[in-house]
Amino acid sequence: MLSLIGIVVVVVGFMARMNPLLVVTVAALVTGVAGGMGPVQIIETFGKAFQENRYVSVVWVVLPVIGLLERAGLQERAKTLIGQIQAATTGRLLLLYFVLRQATAALGLTSLGGHAQMVRPLIAPMAEAAAETHHGPLDDDTRQSIRAHTAAVDNIALFFGEDIFIAIASILLIKGFLEQNGILVEPLQLSVWAIPTAFCALAIHGTRLMLLDRHLARTLGAR
Amino acid sequence: MIGLEVLYVIGGAFFAAISVLSARDATNPKRWKNTAFWGLFAVSFLFGSHLSDFANGLVVIAMVLTAGFGGLGVGLPATTGPEERRESALRLGNRLFLPALAIPLTALTGTFLFKRPELAGLVDPKQATLVSLILGVFVALAIAMPMLRAKPITPLQEGRRLLDTVGWAAVLPQMLAALGAVFAAAGVGTAIGQIASDWLPSGSQLAAVVAYTFGMAIFTMIMGNAFAAFPVMTAGIGLPLIVLHFGGDPAIMGAIGMLSGFCGTLMTPMAANFNIVPAALLELKDRNGVIRAQVPTAILLLLANTALMYVLVFRF
Q1: Of the ranges A16-20, A132-136, B279-283, which one carries the lowest mean pLDDT score?
Q2: Angle at the Cα of A11 (from A7 to A12), degrees rounded to 5?
Q3: Which of A138, A7, A26, A31 has the alpha carbon at shortest distance from B185?
Q4: Is the CB of residue A26 less than 8 Å from the CB of residue A58?
Q5: CA-CA distance, B229 to B227, in Å (whole number)?
Q6: Interface of B with A in 21-40 (CB under 8 A)
């Protein structure tokens, strides 16, 4: 039970808005000590796992090309393009992106979206531009809220689309775990049962995106 | 064969360049902290596979001590202003989308191509997607550089501008993965599984389903990762109660159980790459802004998952 003290450190540290890198390191030290590990062993475990997970951070290599295109006006061009389409509202645009992201993820094409490659350079400026077309210049809070919604759409569509694909990591993990416990299931059996939740996600978040349009119309008024 | 090691060299070279460029940027009051932080990260990328576990651990701790107190600074690399960008966008038009879309298209094509038997041995098939994504970056640069007549240093400076807006959060996902490893080694998972099975409501099917789906979501929020929560909660509640005791279908339990965990992922700062990193990337003032936008959907979807599992799992 003592090993759970690290979780307390994390919760308190995040709530107190301390620097998360410090919080995580202290939580690792405390957990390791509580779990009977020596300081050297803790540092070794931490260092080994950090090194093995470097692939998570490789994606930052896309930043130079995204920055280069931003410098040349990519966001402005994305805004102009959407501003010309009268039917494009923030909610409808995000719903379209949701459907595309979820459908491609369901086919295993998870790399088609992403916050650095798609959301920041293209989708977020488009969502802001659609709001500006219909409601005029945006105040800072509205702009922030639209951006947050754009990132949320990318996440939710990805999470509740990818499990329909049979070769995604989570499906393989479920299959492997059940197999260890003597239960054989085919990946297809698992991915089929991800479909009802996928539709629920589309219905729930789609409704919220339509409500976002109404909220923007109510608070900002028409142009 | 092109695999992770090649990608780590590319990443290491990028972070090393950021470190050097930060050192030369006198507009950044904390430039030496940025230099040290990205320099250490470059060391981890370039030499991590050859260093001892202990040395790797010391590199991480040095990074944390550099950024943990007072954070990193933000440099001001020369870039274009809003007016210049509007003019450039007008001049270049839709051609600007070409390099941007080249990244996902290359990622997509490469993922398929590199798994074909004719090309086996060229790229590590397990890393085909990541290798293709980075290949896409080079394809995009090859299109964009001549089109924009950019100097070779420009992409690196623009990359630094973006990386500085993300700051230390860029490393947080990897740190949390490392914390997960310490949690596992110290037996945190087993302790939580113990609590879950001690508190287990027995008797009703509904109580078992609720305990499992909500348990998955909550444990995922703690660990930041549904993959870490799944084996513990399924061994503690899902298998013994839903499948063995009440005769539920294991495939439905597993599939919807994992998706209940994903609802937790939407609600926790511990899932930094999905929630904290985009907040930094989109320059949100509220670090938890993305989570706030997701919570209503996550809660409704968790209820939907619970209802779906209750209705379906005992019927098939």
Answers
A1: A16-20
A2: 115
A3: A31
A4: no
A5: 5
A6: none
